[in-house]
Amino acid sequence: ETGVTQSPTHLIKTRGQQVTLRCSSQSGHNTVSWYQQALGQGPQFIFQYYREEENGRGNFPPRFSGLQFPNYSSELNVNALELDDSALYLCASSLGASGGTGELFFGEGSRLTVL
Amino acid sequence: SQQGEEDPQALSIQEGENATMNCSYKTSINNLQWYRQNSGRGLVHLILIRSNEREKHSGRLRVTLDTSKKSSSLLITASRAADTASYFCATDAVGSYIPTFGRGTSLIVHP
């Protein structure tokens, strides 16, 4: 158990809809990273939040957006869903964007299916 | 884009045998990590090796790092059926502290 919780665990949406995924980080961690993992692939970095500010972004379009709250929990929002957005969305917390050990603590993920 | 690439993509062995997985990467790194993922679950951190280290051990795990070849290997000794999982290497390039993952090696250990 990492102490990182994600919700919901599974959800089904249709093309064009919007979705919000939530993540509670491990106690004491101030950094949250979001990854998208398609079936049979490795996790792809979406973005990272450090102390409520976006600290880095991968190659994802602007319809992928996020927030980090003062308690360091985080949300991932995806607008105008496409079929290719179907994936496991992983949240990972860590201590410090450029400090700490660099080790990521992952939640169990949110499985999104877009029909 | 993938910074690290694991090899082989799939590995099937018998319980008790050793399993070796390799990771190659493209640019200079701060450190390299190995993670494990059981089917459809979250990733679990196994071991981190810094760019100035050459070898690290943790229980049945041994990790080596060759920065001149930009490669790392993960050795699991005396494998068990419970080691069946996907294994990923993650690197953070110099100037970035964001781990980037490869496509993983799928390990099956037959009892």
Class inferred from helices and paired strands of chain B: mainly beta
The beta-strand count of chain A equals 11
Oligomer: heterodimer
Percentage of residues assigned to helices of chain A? under 10%
Shape of chain A: globular
Helical amount among residues of chain B, as a percent range?
Answer: under 10%
The biggest sheet of chain A, with number of strands, parallel, antiparallel or mixed sense and barrel status, is: 7 strands, mixed
Largest interface summary: A-B, 28 and 25 residues
Strand content of chain B: over 45%
What class, by secondary structure content of chain A? mainly beta
Note the gap between the termini of chain A.
32 Å
The end-to-end distance of chain B, rounded to whole angstroms, is 36 Å
Q: What is the succession of H and E elements of chain A?
A: EEEEEEEEEEE
Main pleated sheet of chain B: 6 strands, mixed
Mean pLDDT of chain B: 93
The number of helical segments of chain A is 0
Descriptive overview:
The complex is a heterodimer of chains A (115) and B (111). Chain A has 115 residues and is an all-beta fold. Chain A has strands spanning 5-7, 10-13, 19-24, 31-37, 44-50, 53-57, 64-68, 74-78, 87-94, 105-106, 110-114. In chain A, strands 2, 4, 5, 6, 9, 10 and 11 form a seven-stranded mixed β-sheet that branches. In chain A, strands 1-3-8-7 form a four-stranded antiparallel β-sheet, with no helix packed on it. In chain A, a hairpin with a 2-residue loop joins strand 5 (44-50) and strand 6. Chain B has 111 residues and is mainly β. Chain B has strands at residues 4-7, 10-14, 19-25, 29-37, 43-50, 55-58, 61-66, 71-76, 85-93, 100-101, 105-110. In chain B, the strands form two sheets. In chain B, strands 2, 4, 5, 9, 10 and 11 form a six-stranded mixed β-sheet that branches. A five-stranded antiparallel β-sheet of chain B has the order 1-3-8-7-6, with no helix packed on it. Chain B is globular and about 45 Å long. The relative contact order of chain B is 0.35. The model of chain B has no long low-confidence stretch (mean pLDDT 93). The chains are: A mainly beta (115), B mainly beta (111). Chain A binds chain B through residues 2, 4, 33, 35, 40-45, 48, 56, 59, 88, 90, 92, 97-98, 101-109, 111, and chain B through 1-2, 30-31, 33, 35, 40-45, 48, 88, 90, 92, 96-104.
